[in-house]
Design goal:
Mean pLDDT: 97
Strand content: 15-25%
CATH architecture of the domain at 6-195 and 230-258 and 299-318: 3-Layer(aba) Sandwich
Strand order of the largest sheet: 3-2-1-4-5-6-11
CATH superfamily of the domain at 6-195 and 230-258 and 299-318: NAD(P)-binding Rossmann-like Domain
Structural class: alpha/beta
Order of helices and strands: EHEHHEHEHHEHEEHEEEHEEHHEHHH
CATH topology of the domain at 6-195 and 230-258 and 299-318: Rossmann fold
Helix content: 40-55%
Low-confidence stretches: none
Largest sheet: 7 strands, parallel
Bound molecules: nicotinamide-adenine-dinucleotide
């Protein structure tokens, strides 16, 4: 990582981007540039908490409030910064919101990615940085839905099923086409579902915790038997750092947690953890309610991460139950934060993503 002097992160006030910035501040000496439009679910405390504690971090950390859909502004910022490593995470990321408002997803995820790679192409044509890399951070949802058997890998054909995954798939195709046509040092990563601290309480794990704290029922979409492959966010960030260091350009890497769990079982684990460790005592059976399924809901995701393990030596290091326990505890202890971000987003944990 020491080659890199100026690291640009897009989407650094989101859940994964902020975890990445915290790790980059601690594990590198590089200047860090965070480009984020500071959207509905963004939060700056997730980064500023550690920046403000340390003078060296303060000197190395820079934030630009910018929408990556604004081509001219983005271009001038990138040409000013002159990054030698880019992690591209800025995207609209919630499937339910993509059902109600797909156009925002087309803009940020497709147009925004086009802007970034086209500007990067232009920028690299004027300078010769032989170690430059751009990592485009994507999702396993681009592969569609699995049956009972098998896992997604780098060779799985794309088959996105939601507006979110379709826009992420489009952005992956753009990145690969640009690297192939213009010979650019780009890497695409496809990761399974992340969980951890500082995640906006609209996604399954923090939403379920919040519902229990609020004394409300947790909505179980459909039969609750959908399977996701969960990865602790710190493990994802470690994978990204490892790829930036040892990953081969022009390659793709699938990142997964080797941790398949049915949604209903996951919520039961969360409920048990809260019952054991807090005063929010409740009966699981009375805390869940089965509701209409998400339109086009994918049944199962699972990642085969043999390639990244064999080629560059990364595999998940965190035990799921421990990491989930830490996460639940963090939300129990940070209710002020949850209330503040929910209020900022004007979101009351209500159901979204149903057809009219
Ligand atoms: N959360 C997961 O489980 C998961 C798994 C695999 C891949 N990913 C991918 O990782 C990336 C980050 O996910 P996340 O969970 O941190 O998402 P997030 O929604 O928490 O954060 C995304 C951030 O991007 C910013 N952003 C969105 N559109 C922008 C734009 N047009 N210009 C500038 N900033 C913009 C938002 O303001 C936000 O701060 C996304 O690309 C997502 O597709 C997420």
């Amino acid at each position: 990582m020491n080659n890199f002097k100026k690291i640009l992160v897009t989407g650094g006030y989101g859940f994964i981007g902020s975890a990445l910035i915290r790790k980059l501040l601690i594990n590198t000496k590089a200047d860090i540039f965070n480009l984020d439009k500071f959207g509905l679910v963004s939060d700056d405390q997730s980064v500023l908490n550690i920046v403000e504690q340390n003078k060296v971090f303060r000197n190395r950390y820079n934030f630009f409030k910018v929408d990556i859909c604004e081509f001219k502004l983005l271009k001038s910022i990138i040409e000013d910064i002159k990054p030698d490593l880019i992690f591209h995470l800025a995207a609209e990321s919630h499937v339910d919101r993509s059902i109600n408002n797909p156009s925002q997803f087309v803009q940020s995820n497709i147009v925004g990615t086009y802007n970034l790679i086209e500007i990067t192409r232009n920028y690299l044509s004027k300078r010769n940085i032989d170690y430059f890399k751009l990592l485009h951070i994507s999702t396993d949802e681009v592969f569609g839905s699995l049956g009972d058997l098998g896992k997604f890998s780098e060779s799985t054909p794309y088959d996105p099923k939601s507006p979110y995954s379709a826009t992420k798939a489009s952005s992956d195709h753009l990145v690969r086409a640009w690297r192939n046509t213009y010979n650019l040092p780009f890497i695409v990563t496809n990761c399974s579902n992340n969980f951890g601290e500082w995640q906006f309480p609209e996604k399954l794990i923090p939403l379920s915790i919040q519902k229990i704290i609020n004394g409300e029922k947790i909505p179980i979409y459909g039969n609750g038997l959908q399977i996701r492959d969960w990865l602790y966010v710190e493990d994802h960030v470690d994978a990204l750092l490892t790829i930036s260091e040892k990953g081969k350009i022009n390659e793709d890497y699938c990142i997964g947690g080797n941790c398949e769990i049915k949604n209903i079982e996951l919520i039961k684990k969360i409920s048990d953890t809260i019952n054991q460790n807090s005063n929010y005592k409740h009966s699981f059976a009375n805390t869940i309610k089965y509701v209409e399924d998400r339109p086009g809901h994918d049944t199962r995701y699972a990642i085969d991460f043999t390639k990244i393990k064999k080629e560059i030596g990364w595999e998940p290091s965190q035990k799921f139950t421990l990491a989930l326990g830490k996460t639940v505890e963090w939300y129990l202890n940070n209710q002020d934060w949850s209330k503040r971000v929910l209020q900022k987003a004007n979101y009351g944990t209500q159901r979204i993503g149903l057809l009219d």
